[in-house]
Amino acid sequence: MEQARGIHSYRKYWAVRFGVAPFLPMSRAEMDALGWDSCDVIIVTGDAYVDHPSFGMAIIGRLLEAQGFRVGIIAQPDWQSADPFKALGKPNLFFGVTAGNMDSMVNRYTSDRRMRSDDAYTPNGEGGKRPDRSVIVYAQRARQAYTDVPIVIGGIEASLRRIAHFDYWSEKVRRSILLDAKADLLLFGNAERQIVEVAHRLAAGKKIGDITDLRGTAFARQALPAGYIEIDSTHLETPGPLNPPIDPYAMEDNGGTKSSMEQTPAGAAQSANESVVRFVRRVRNADRARSVIRLPAFEQVVDDPVMYAHASRILHLESNPGNARAMVQRHGQIDLWLNPPPIPLTTREMDNVYELPYQRQPHPSYGKAEIPAYKMIRFSIAIQRGCFGGCTFCSITEHEGRIIQSRSEGSILREIEKVRDTVPGFTGVISDLGGPTANMYRLACKSRAIESACRKPSCVYPGVCPNLNTDHTPLIELYRKARALPGIKKVLIASGVRYDLAIESPEYVKELAQHHVGGYLKIAPEAIGEGPLSKMMKPGVGTYYRFKELFDRYSKEAGKEQYLVPYFIAAHPGTTDEDMLELALWLKKNGFRADQVQAFLPSPMATATAMYHSGRNPLRRVARNSEEVTIPKGLKIRRLHKAFLRYHDANNWPMLREALRRMGRADLIGPGKPHLVPPWQPVGTGKQAEGIRTPRPFRTQHVRPRQ
Predict the structure, then answer these.
(1) Residue 467 pLDDT more than 80?
(2) In the CATH hierarchy, which fold is given to the domain comprising 379-516?
(3) What pLDDT score was predicted for residue 694?
(4) Whole-number pLDDT of residue 358
(5) Please, which residues have CB within 8 angstroms of residue 278's CB and are 6 or more apart in sequence?
(6) Looking at domain 14-217, which of 3.40.50.2300, 3.40.190.150, 2.40.128.120, 3.40.50.970 is its CATH number?
(7) Hey, which residues does 91 pair with through a beta bridge?
């Protein structure tokens, strides 16, 4: 993997003389108090401004401040006009636009497309403080405010919508968000490397349109640059007949119609400088840096779900920073260009990012208003980024990457001490040491060469890769040192434990169960049937049993009565009614009653979303006759699958009785222990069964099975 320039190796911008701001300013009055006449960068965000490293705007803002730039924040502006976007004046370099820590559509709507009444990232949890598709709206308003200021978009909403993507809320394939937002540059991933380089280049007088060589960026261009080798993605993996049949009545050009082997695929732009490779699977290693893969054009993936699944597969195969190539996708008359993913941060860089001078509190302008998301994470510590699990329904890998980026032990312990000494209301309990997962800290491939060449979407499916280092010793030592710090009473682990990894280290399970669980531990089997599990890329239920055996044994040794709280997903691609029935019976047998449930939500760019839209399985080579996937679509079937998870809720019994009779399982209707639902209906229940709402988050109550 190539070496990247260190994010703290740049010569600081001249405005570093102004020093560190207590909070990044949100008003002209705050700018005046700091002695600023203008901002160099203004970040527009859909979240309330919390100066904490769990909030993206705080990390990017403080990082740019450390480079010497003056950074202002416009948080949750009124988007009805451009005036709120002028509140801090005209930025000298660019507007940075983000929807916040969540995709705005996921934030505002349930998996049944019902509008939520609350927003955890807003003061007092008030809903409606951000628009749908926030990045597009904010970028357009910023452009109206100052037409000549570059617009750079980023964050998870932009990152996951960087190419043509299926949008669940409109049930159609949409263009890249870069084009809809009319932005100049899109940064995907966590983007520290990109944002620092962009700021310094613009400060040096470079034009935003000339920044085309930066990893982790997407931008529009008219044609391929000179010297590039173009590879048609359909020649890497052919989905089936692609070219339209030759029209026998068409006029021949220069003596004849081109043969099908010579035709340029639809949407492919050619210029005099373009070099095209056809019908080869590989280019020489020496040429990889100047090769680009042409994905099917936007117009193709809109019209052809199989081509959409193919494009999704190629995108995921080209996600390893060690071997990924640039990609290009035609949108009308414009090429959308995606450079390879950014090089992951080093441990030293991660330490520097998380030890910037955050106040770890909301901006004072919010007064005593409570921001629910902040309340949840104020005593938590991020120790790592990325995930190599590859779960198809999850977008962490597409955003943060599958290479784990870990902080040093010393940096983490210093942050715990800072929380202890400075955060109001701290009672001695650290609520979480984790990240996307709890137990991937410092885990990586045993060989850098193998890691750089690997194209597997998961390091732990269908089993743990033999090249993966699964040693949990550094994490165990971190836990022990953290709980030994003066003033620390308890260190809890709230991030999800990847239990198929944990069983590789029984000592880790022992440490976890005996010292870091507060009675209940969340884990995520997601399903128990092989059909849905194979489409999720999750381990079988046998792995769950092995983890449970260890967890129960070590809890008992410590004299603690503790329970596992399993998460399950309803209506995931590959799930049949029979799979959900099997899960409901398993839940009842094991004494679990789901208080709140989650249904599959097709988030942009996820592999499972490609399954949902196309009905094909992009985990394997996509072809016209390739494996078809069962897709539980439609409100009725999605509600039925959720009802199976809440088999104990009397409001669901009429729906379940009807389904059981239809499935030929009326034997499960009865009053006894072997039955799933009773034949009778309590007074005042059942009428609301069709209006079940999906609350969040998912919780499970453990009920002891009767002896």
Answers:
(1) yes
(2) Transcription Regulator spoIIAA (3.30.750)
(3) 35
(4) 98
(5) 232, 235, 261
(6) 3.40.50.2300
(7) none
Burial class (CB in 10 A: 0-12, 13-18, 19+), 691: exposed
Rounded distance, CA 13 to CA 20, Å? 13
Q: φ and ψ at 210, to 5 degrees?
A: -90, -5
Q: Which of 579, 507, 506 is nearest to 538 (CA)?
A: 579
Give the C-alpha separation, 685 to 650, whole Å.
Answer: 6
Hey, what are 319's tokens? 């996600």
Task: Parse the chain into domains and list their residue ranges.
Answer: 14-217, 223-241+265-332, 379-516, 521-526+547-707
Give the CA radius of gyration of the chain: 26
- Nearby residues of 691 by Cβ (< 8 Å), 6 or more positions away: none
At 354, phi and psi to the nearest 5? -85, -10
Q: Can you give the pLDDT at residue 240? A: 56
The DSSP secondary-structure symbol of 75 reads E
The DSSP bridge partners found for residue 327 are 293, 338
User: DSSP string of 595-610?
Assistant: EE-EE----TT-HHHH
Look-up of token digits 């899960």: 583
Position 477 confidence tier, pLDDT thresholds 50, 70, 90:
very high
Q: Is 621 exposed, middle or buried (0-12, 13-18, 19+ CB in 10 A)?
A: middle
- The residue behind tokens 């004299």 is 559
Q: 104 near 135, Cβ under 8 Å?
A: yes
* Residue 512 in tokens: 């976890």
CA atoms within 13 A of residue 505's CA, in its CB half-sphere: 22
Q: Which structure tokens are listed for 175?
A: 């263009």
- Could you report the per-residue pLDDT of 436-453, keeping only the tens digit for each? 999 999 999 999 999 999
CA dist 672 to 423, 636, 654, 686, Å? 53, 28, 17, 20
- Tell me what the pLDDT averaged over the chain comes to: 90
SS3 content of the chain, % helix, strand, coil (to 5): 35, 15, 50
- 171 contacts 164 by C-beta, under 8 angstroms: no
Q: Quick one: tokens of 269?
A: 């732009």
Q: Nearest to residue 179, comparing CAs of 210, 144, 220?
A: 220
User: Confidence class of residue 283 from pLDDT cuts 50, 70 and 90?
Assistant: low
pLDDT tens for each residue of 485-508: 999 999 999 999 999 999 999 999
Q: Cis (ω within 30 of 0) for the bond into 265? A: no
pLDDT of residue 246: 37
Question: What residues contact 302, with CB distance under 8 A and at least 6 apart?
Answer: 164, 172, 173
Q: Cβ contacts of residue 430 below 8 Å, gap of 6+?
A: 379, 380, 381, 416, 419, 482, 488, 490, 491, 492
Percent of the chain whose pLDDT exceeds 70: 90
pTM (two decimals): 0.90
- Cβ atoms of 152 and 202 within 8 Å: the answer is no
Find all residues with CB under 8 Å of 183, minimum gap 6, and list them.
97, 139, 151, 152, 153
Residue 599's nearest CA partner among 624, 636, 559, 627 is 636
514 to 339, 508, 520: CA distances (angstroms) = 46, 10, 12
